[in-house]
Structures are given as C-alpha cells and as structure tokens.
User: Fold these one by one.
Assistant:
Number 1:
Amino acid sequence: MSVALGFLRRSGFHLFAATVVAFLVTPFVISLLVSFFPGRSIGLPTIETGLTLDWYGIVLTDPLYRQGLVNSAVVGVLVAAVSLTLALPLVIGLSRTPRLRWLTGAIVIPATVPTVILGMQSLVAFEALGIRGSLLSIVAAHSLWGLPLAMLVLKAAHDRLDPGLLEAARSLGAGAARATWEVTLPLLGPALVVGAILAFVASLNELVMSLFLAGGNVRTLPTVVWPQVRHAVRPDVAAASSILLVVALVATGLAYLLWRGQTNRA
Amino acid sequence: MTTASSPAAGARRSWAGRPAWLALPAVLFFLVVFVLPFIGVGRVAVAGDPPAGTGTFFDLSVFRPANLLDVAGERLFRSVMGVTVRTGIIITGVCMAVAVPFAAYIHTRRGWVKAALISAVALPKLVNLLVLLYGVLLTLGSGGVINDVLLGLGIVDQPLRLFGNLFAVVFTEVLVVLPYPVLLLLAAFEASDSRHFDAARSLGAGPVRAYLETVIRPAWPAVVGAAIISAVWAVGAFVGPLVLGNPPYYTVAVEVYLRALERLQWVDAAGWAILSVGAFGLALGGANLVLRAIQRRSAEPRGGASA
C-alpha cells in the first residue's frame, strides 16, 4: 500500500513538473513554429502545409523591421559598453572600500522598479533635456538594467579572485593601476564578456522604457513589433519575435559557457 | 608593518588602498539617470497643465500639491488600485503555489535534467516580452492550442474565449514573474545541508516530511522574500493587462502608460505614478520589515535569551 502511494506521489510530482515546463515553454515553441507557417493567416505548419522561410525574408528586407533590428543591435552594444565602463571601476572600488558596500544594493534598485515607472521618469527627464527620442536617451535608460547585471556578474567573479595574486604583483613593484591592469583585468576577462552579453540581452529584450522614449528614426525592434502585437497577429510578427528569441538564446548560451569557463578556472 | 617614507607615498598608498572614487562614475550615473528623473516625475505631478497651443506637456511655473489629492480622490484611481492589488495578490499566490514545489522538484534532480529545468524556468527572462506575448496570444486564441485540444477531444463545441479576461492576465503575468521566485527558492534550497535530510530519514521521517522539515522550513525567509519579489513584479503588471486583458483589468501601470503616451496627460500620469509607487513602496517596505523580523527571530538560538 505504502509502495503504491509512494509511486502515485512520485508520478504526481513528475506530472506537476512536466505541466509547469509545458506552461513555460509552449508559448515560445508556438511562436517559433508559426513563423514557419506558409499561409498568410496564423497556423501551425504540418506535413501538408510544409515550411517556409518567407516571413524571415520579409522581416530582414522590410526597411522598418531592418531599421528596428539595426537600432536594437546598436543600442544593445552601447548599453553593454556603458554598463561595463561603469561596473568595472565600481566593483574594484567597492571591493577595497567596505563602507561603500551598500552601493551594491542601491545600484540594483532600478531593476526592481516597475518598468512603466522607469519609462515615465525617463520620459520626463529626457524631454526636459531635449533628448527624448534620441539614441542617447534609450541607451541611458537601458543601462539602468545593464549596470546592475554587469555589476553582479563582475562582483561574483571579482570575489572569487585570489587576493594573493594582486599582492604578489604589488610586492614585485607594480602600482595599484598596473597591478589591476596586468592581473585583475585578464582574470576577469570572461566575466567582462558575460556581463556585456547579459547587458546586451537585457537591452535587446527591453520594451516598456523604449515605448516611452523611442521616436522618429530611433525605434528598436520591440517598439516596431509592439503595435502589431496589440492590434493584429500576423506571421511576420512571429518571425521578428523569433529572431529576437534566437539572438537572445545564442547570446545567453555563449554567456553560460564563458561563465562556466571562468568558474572552473577560479 | 610598513611605514610611509614620505607624504606622497602615503597619499599614493591611501589612493591604492581605498579607491572609493572608482565608484563615482556609477554613482553619478545612478543619480542623474535614476534619482533625479524620479524627483522630476514628482515635480511634474504637482505642476500645472500646459497652456493650450504651447506644445509642452506641463507647466513648471505652477506648484500645485493639490494635484495629488485630486488623483487620490478620483474614483477611477481607487478602483484601478483595487484591481492592481487584487490582480497582484492572485498572481503572487499562483506564483508561490507553483514556485515552492517546482523549486523543490528541481532541487531534487541531478545532471542534465536539472540544467534543462533551470533553463526552462529562465527562458521567459531571457527572451523578449513580445515573444512571450505573441506565444500566449497564439496559445489562448480562439484557434489556439488550448482550444484546438479541447475541440479535438470533444470537450467543447465552440472555442472558449480565453483572453480579454482575468485568466489571460494571470496566465501571462505568471509566465513573466515565475522565474524570480523559482530561482530564488532554488538558491535557498541548494544552501541546505543534505546531511540534515539524511538524519531526519534515519530517524524515521518519510521523504516528504524530512524534506519539509530540513529544506523548506529553514528556507522560510527565502519563501517570504520570493513572495515579496513576486508581489513587486505583480503590482507592476503591464503587458498582460494591456494586451490580454480588457479595461476592467487595467492596472495602474497601464493607466500611467495610457495617460502619458496616448492621452498626453503627463501631469495626471505623473500623479498616478507617484501615488502608486508611494502606496506599493509602503506596503512592500512593511512586508520587508516583517521579513527581517522573521530572519532575526530564526537566527536567534532556540530557547530564547537564556544565554
């Protein structure tokens, strides 16, 4: 009896987990499949209908989509650069100044604020500065998410570094800046790339702040796709969404491999 | 122990030892792009409406704190706050009901299965919200997967209307929020000592009881923390209510968006934003204090302050 109950309990647990995984994964799989559907309406491809890459061709040749994709890529790269440029000195500074450790928590606050609030405050500030709708405004707003991500990754990697290596460099006569340049930075190399990739992916995926700030020629791909998701469901939107999905997954996979390399080395 | 050979060397060592200035660029960025704009929204919330034909969105020459009282007194504001809180509670409840057992399930797996489960959980956070929204629209639509299955099995004759209602809003937002509590709880469960579980088993406890007592009970502060984080995201719900809900399910975030970008009523939008942040900040700050009190109590040695 207890063996049967145990079996039922285990089966129920597996079934529950399988349902949760299906819930999490199904929307993405369907979105991907629809992008290969050859009809002009929405549907799932079958053996009879076959597959098509036409919707990807449309997305990659349509000027609006292409401009959105290029803008997203440019903004993402700039956000990654800004986030690293701010996060690296911050992490090194905090590691040597214990009384400023509270800054770690402060820098993470924007990542916990509802994005509509971040969008609203960016809208007001950048309108007042006269740069709303510019590349600069979107990069600055997205970096509110990029900076905490880059900081947390770099901090985790920096905390694992052997302090003896830096001390050895200093005892051999290197100044603080040279020791950091020659010892700390090379050891943090993979973490720098991971931080940059995560900041890039966060920017690529950001929608709400971009809605508040995008305008004129500076529209990211999510803001191009947004009106169509709200008002019409078409297969080309599935293709555009799938491009974002694939880019984000490839970038995150790369980040994971690099991070594993970094932790194995430490 | 070394001594400074000259004031210059001392100054250099002090620079090298505590280079707090390295944090300055990030702090300035934080102040300029986050703190000052938030104060700016507060200022706009008490500004005047722009004179007609000026092409501006607010009049900063006016200082009218009563704007906030006007917004707080609006019946619509109170009603939308109620919807936001109700929806937030439902989303948080569903997330926690799924997250605790699912995190426990992942914790008890090994190897590639565990890696695959963690990837599946992280998926909604790794991809664009639009991909998720689009997938949900296709899943819940009248010709979507759920209706196809129900019609195919003969359970229903007509496609069910699965969106434009609370179910669709909760479905979407749980997908958005769920990764946070699951990953946070998983991290807490991973910190448990497996020898405690083995000891409980050897003392006669069944696997479920042993797991509850040695893994989930010690992780109680993390459970509360996961609930607070879920609630923070749930009350900020935006895309689910806007795209898959209807006006009766619109949250404060949706109303701020509509006022700011579609009706161009920035003063009103800023008022809604400031009041909602204040209200939810107080509520969640209070919850955080409770969490800290629980953590302090659980850190105290059993048997009270007899030491």
Number 2:
Amino acid sequence: MTDYLVFRLYAPLASWGEAAVGETRPTASYPGKSALLGLVGAALGIRRDDDAGQKALREGLAFGVKQRSSGTLMRDYHTVQVPPAKAKVRYSTRKDELSIPKGDLNTILSARDYRCDGLWNVACWLKPGAAWTLAELRQALERPYFCLYLGRKACPPAVPLSPIVVACETLKDALDSEFPPLNGRSDAGEKALRPSKRALYAWEGEIHRLDGSAEGVEHNDIWDMPLNRRRWQFGPRLEYRRVMQDKEGR
Amino acid sequence: MSHFIQLHLLTSYPPANLNRDDLGRPKTALMGGAKRLRVSSQSLKRTWRTSNLFEEALAGHVGTRTKRLGKEVYDQLTKQGVKEKTAIASAEKIAGVFGKLRKVGKGEAHEFEIEQLVHVGPEEREAVNQLITTLAAENREPEDSELKLLRHRPAAADVALFGRMLAAVPEYNVDAACQVAHAITVHAAEVEDDYFTAVDDLNMGDEDRGAAHIGEAGFGAGLFYTYLCIDRRQLVENLNNNQELADKAIAALVEAAVKTSPKGKQNSFGSRAHASYVLAEKGNQQPRSLSMAYLRPVNGQDQSLDAIQRLEVQAQAFDNAYGDGADSRFVVSAEPAYSAPQLSGDVTQGSLDELLAFLRDQ
C-alpha cells in the first residue's frame, strides 16, 4: 500500500505549456511535471526564486495524471502594445506606457493555446526524504499561500481541488478515486463535459507503477523537469503513458 | 485579514465587438460543448489599468514625471548651507541615478536637467529627501552605496496588482496579486455578421447608384460572467506593507471592473455597460471560479435572473459539497427583479459603496 494525495483539476480554460520560444505558446493535453510542481509550490508558498525550496519540491514529489477529458483546443490571438525600449525612460503604470504618441507604440503578437473544458485527476506521492507529508500538502491546497491556476494565471480552477489522502494498492486505484459531482450537486453537470470513455494515464517512476503491468505502456523523455525556475531551464524525465477504458466513463 | 477576495460579475452587453481575434471578429470559446463569446483577461486588465477611474483613485501614489530632480536636489542642498562644489557633485550623482543628464551649453546656467522626463515614485522621492538631509548635516557628497535609490517594488498600485515582467532585469519583476479569468457568456452565442454599405454623398446617382463601400463586421451580444481573485496578502507585500494603499487599489480595481468596459469598436457599437450583479467573497479558503454554474448554457427568456440564481445555487452547492468557500459574502444587484441572495451563511446585500467598505480590511 502506498499513500497518495489525489486531487481534481477542472477549469473552462487551462493551458499546460510546452517548450515554447517566441510567438507560439502551445499547450499539452494534460499537466506535466513542471505545471504540477508549480501548482503545489504555489499552494505551499514556495517562490520561483527560492532555489532550495524548488529543489525540495522537485526531488520530493512524484506525480501521476489521469486525463478524463483533454478538452478542446482553443487558439487565442493575442496582441500587446508596448512602448519602444529606451534605457532612460521608465514607465510606472500601464496608462503611462500607453500615453506616448500612438505612432510610437509597437505591437507584439503571440498565439496562445488553451484547452477548453479539460478534466484531470492528479495523484502525488512522496519520494524518500521529502520535505513535506501528504497531509501538509493537502492542507496547503485547501488554504493555499498563492492563488492557484491551471497553467496560466488567467485559468483559475473552477471546482475546488478537493484534495484527499488515500492509501491504495496501485497508482491506478488512486487516480480512479471518486470525487463529488463536478458541480457539487447530484444532477449530472458532468454530462456537458462529455468525459472520454477512454482515459489516458501518465506517470513517472517505474513502468509497472500504474497497475503492475507493462502491457501497452509507451514512454519517452519529456523536457519538463524544472532545473532552474529563475532561468527557466528544464531537463528531461521519463514519462509512461497508457490509454485504458475508464470505468467512470459514461 | 482575509487572504483572498473573489469577485463574480455578470455584465450584459448589447451587440458589440469588445475583443477581436485575428480576423477582427469577437473572440469565442467552447464551454460545456457550447460556443460562447469571450473577452480575454488581457483585454479586461488593459481596460481597467488604463481607466481614468483607476488613475484618479490612486492619485498621489502614481509618482511624478520630471526632468528637474537634480535642480531640486541642488537647491535644497545649497539652502541648507552645503558648499557649492559639493552640492553640484551631489545633485549630478543623485539625478544621474534616474536618468542621463543633459549636457549644459556654453554660457547656460547649470540646471542638472535629466534628458527625458523620468518617473519618480513617491517613496523614491522620499529616499532622495532623506539622503539630502543626511548630506546637508554631514556636508559631503553621497557614497555609491547611498545611491541605490531606485526601488525594486514601486508603490504603483497598477504594477502591484497586475505584475511586471522584465526579462532583462529579473530583480525588478513583481508577481501579480490579482488573477483575472477570461469573461465568457453564460449562454451559447454565435458571432453574427453585420453586412454594411456606405454611400458616397457626392455621387448624384446619374450613372451609378451603387454604394461606395461595402463591408462586413462581426459582432455579438451577451451576458458575460467575469471572475477575478485578489490575493490581498501578496498585494500588501507588493506595496511594501502599505495597507491603506492596498485598500485603495482594491477599491479602484473593483469599481473599474464594475463600471468600465473594453473599448473595442465603441464608435460603431457604443456598448458600454455596468455590471448588473456582483458577488464578492472574502476568506482564506482555496479560491475557485463559479463558471460551473454555466456549464450548461442558460437559455430562456429571463436570462439575467436565471444567471444570478444559478450562480448563487452553484456557490451554495460547492459549500455543501466541499465546505464553505468563503467566510463572508456581499451582493450588489442592479437587476430589478432580484430580491435577496439565496445563499446561507454570512451574506449582506447593498450598494457598490457598501461593497467597497466591506472589502476594506477591518
């Protein structure tokens, strides 16, 4: 038996950033390690420039994700007006920046991808020497230090994360944990989300971790292991994935 | 102190094109499998940040734009009896922190003028004044260590609320204390097309009676749900523990969110609107938006009242299922048919002014 902290993620918009340089900001279909570490780190109040705290997070926690719905892809066309950079001019407010002659303003374009209506269960377990207990993590998620968000600050959770600590035989059992109905009532608000009948499980650690079998498991390196939050550097980690019939699927 | 302040707004817009995509049409998103109109959080924040209301509320905390800081330092120092040579050197050094000094021409009086207008925050001015007092008392020039007058966390409430990211100088970065979600309609909506023509007034129609211009413009009307969450603790921290300014910033933000609208295509649509319903929540619990209330699109004749009812039922359902989502709540309603909140617990109903008082930290 292993203890897991399990919680649920839903928001009308979420964005699980992938490697991005420049004007295209793509999203994965489910949260990666850096997004989940960021979420738990925000709840604990660990700042991006707190190198020791970030290291403890990275080395202490491991995650598995069950994707019940990847949601639909939305591409947001985004423009930002910016004044030209002048070394000796400082703008203190946005109004200040935009009050220069209109012709001098430049426009930056970017295309930002989001997932609409995605639904994910997340299980977190501790690695030896972890700096926190699962109960502490649970408490932090319930009373977070910083605002939580699903990948981007503009994507607040739209359902309480409802973190629980469970002892399970397998990771799959933990990820299959039951949650209260999505809208908190008994009628099926979830129908509107149309969760997939086939769930995607993704996890780190060992290939057998999910349910003891390695059958149908695919894996590759994902470059989302945060190495330095200040410099925005990421290293590779091995991720395992398997698509299975979801017993909760309707 | 309540850690989080959450605001849920319902605002109804007539036909409008508030926030455009790359084709110039209103932005949309899917929710609950139904297409909705959308206004991006970036568009909302820009509207609020650049509103007069926001600037006026924070008057006195937005700093001074000046070229003349050096002259002021020089005058102060000489008035307090500092030697001419020391005063000149000090004024040059201090003004030099804020910007490059203009070269003085032949026969011209030395004004220690900065080449461009620079923005000097109130606490930066305060630091300069303190330094002047020290220098005058000790009759000397400032040392390098004393010239660190630029503050990493300016008291500009704008930056404290919405953050700042400077890739070149990361130590000046400020994490936003306010989280804003994209606003979406509570109902399903399609973007409609306005086919329009324009006549040429000087065309007498003798030969050609056609229009001089034809075009198409996308638009949509809808009742939007907007959610924002203010992390009061972080806001106060960003403002160097200035509680009073934090309260002012929150009040300005809330008033801007309730009363101002994105300005996209205002000349064509004149679509300004005030929120018709506001639910504010205070507490330390994990914040969550209430967009779930509209996962199934609202449809029916009484949209506004239905939307309010759904929002309150949803907040109550979350409370029942997961425990209270907030310690206290406040409702402002401008919907004529609305009578009283259907929420249990500590709930008050009142005006916007009373809401602002409710949000002030007691």
